[in-house]
Each structure stands twice: as C-alpha cells, then as structure tokens.
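Pilot study result, target chain (240 residues):
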Amino acid sequence: MSDQHVHLEFVPLHGESFTIAYADDLAEFFFRANASASGEGSYDEWTLSAHDPNRITAGDITAVNRTMAARTAPKRWTSFTESVEDAGWLSALDLGWDLFAMPEGEWLRHGVQTRLGDAFKAVMGPYRGAAVATKVLHIKRPRLIPVCDSYVARTMCVQLWDSADWHSLLALVVHLRKQGRANAEGLRVIRERLRAAGFERTAVRILDALLWMHAGDSGPYAAFSAWLALQEERDRPTRP
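Predicted structure:
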C-alpha cells in the first residue's frame, strides 16, 4: 500500500492508545456506503441543508430516525419542535466555531466548554440520551458537535448510559477535541480526499464516523477494516 495513506493515532479516556490504519480509505468507504452518509434522504444530506440553525425542528427528528437508527419518538421532542422562538442555549453556540480548529485561547475566551454543557443539559433527559441528543445537535452545529453514540463511546472507553449525565458527554466531547487537534493534518488530508470524491464533510463528522467504524466487530465495515489489515501485512517490508 502507498505511504501516502493516513493512519490516525488516538488516546481513549481510559485504556491503551490505538491506531486507525488507512483512515482515508475507511472514511471514503463509510461516506459512500453508509445509508446515513450519502443519498437522497440521508442524515448527512439533511445536515448539509442547514435548516433553522437555532431551533430543533420536526424535520431534524425525522432525519435522525430515517437513516441514523435513532428510534426517538417525536413526542419526546415537542417542547423543542413546537417552540416558535430560537433556543438561547443553541444561539449561544456560534455557527463558525469548530471543535478542532478553534485555538485554545478563543476556546477559553468564549467559554465554549460551558456553552456546550448548557446545550447538553438542555437537550438530554428521559428518552433523550447522549446518542440521540448529539445526533440532533450535530445537525445544528456540524463543525462543533460530534455524534457520540454507544459505538463512539465504546471506542473512547466510556459509558453514556444515563440520559441525565450530560457531564460525561461533555467530558467526552472535550476529549475528542484533543484527539481531533492531535490528528489535524490527517483529518485535513481525508477531508480533501472526500471533497474530491464529492463529499463535503466536516472534520468532526469524519472523526466520529471513523471511531464508529472502529468499534464495530461485524458487518461490512469490520470486513473492510480486516481487508485493509491484510493489505498492510502483505505490503509490510520483510526484514533480511
């Protein structure tokens, strides 16, 4: 395999560090093959259309249920979807803020961590755990809030079972900021490759997709990862 491929290194919140090899190949495979990532009616298509950035709408709930396997009942979101006013905690998150690209000085000056905590606290509750909350919030702030479902949490060696535990979700997102910043160049290369292939995606979305695939132990993503591992083994130079 070519040395130009991207291999990303991650440190979970607990446990040993790990590598996602051929992350560029994996990312393109995901965004071509996953139902949430491409095609008419997909979650990513809805996210890219930028509907009502400061309100959670009924369309957002439909989008996460259609191809993101959220299975969240619309009635659990009526306090948000029936509101006729912008959500102050959402308006407080600037559309231009980027989880990985934002310099630390700006991050601290704008109190982004506190504002994210306010958003998670506002959205999470009974039947609205971290997974579905971040699937909805990513639509609103695709450069800032990653999807943190059970697979992503597992990869980072944390548990997000309590729907009221927004503190743990915030800790995970802050940690993902560190991981994204440490892998900024690799993610930039992957974004350029995806853009050339016709997929305009944020670095945050690319990272959560890669972490999601890494946690999977069955299905086409695991099979593709196993195939890449075989290529790596085959092409590794043998020692004399």
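One observation from the pilot: Residues 8-234 form one domain. A full batch analysis is planned for the follow-on phase.
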